[in-house]
Design goal:
The protein is α+β, with helices and mostly antiparallel strands. The chain is built from three helices and eight strands, in the order H-E-E-E-E-E-E-E-E-H-H. Strands 1-8-3-6 form a four-stranded antiparallel β-sheet, with no helix packed on it.
Amino acid sequence: MSLTDSIDVDSKSEKPMSLIWGCELSSERDSYTFQVPDEWQYEQQLALRTICLGEKARDEFHVVEIVPAEDGEPPRAPVPLATLKPSVLPMATLVGVELTPPVTFHLRAGSGPVYISGQHVSLMPNLSWDEEEEAAEEEESAEESPEKPPKAQAAKKGSVAKKRRLEKDEELNSVSSEDPLPSKGRGAGRGKKPAAKK
């Protein structure tokens, strides 16, 4: 199971944080344990990327294995991770090897140096998410509901405009039925209102 499989897509309170990680195994130090402090209460994972031999490695087989954690069950056998030799395979890419700490690496054969690298992935609390979400919600509500005039004012505006339009129509009807159309020429029909008859 990988860290990305266990992340809830809707989870907005945690975000993955990734740090580069690496260790060296050699004849002086043939094992290394990757573990996180107990006070780190968030999910931790080690995603391995490469394992390679150092420039001073002898031309011999170097076998690196993962030693299972002792958790009260019957002891399990170590799992070989890579077998490297400078003249044949000095480096291997490890894709999809994601381990949950604590993890112990052991140099079973060879004198090293062997370098293991990867990413330490941790789910950290995303404290700024709530603040960003609240600000986005406020913007959305402001865009969705622009200020509208109260209904009473809207009704008055509509009725006033309607009255003016009706009056204008009446004037035009009364003028057109009684007076012939003005002749076309200079100044005729340009914005002048006909004089109302008394």
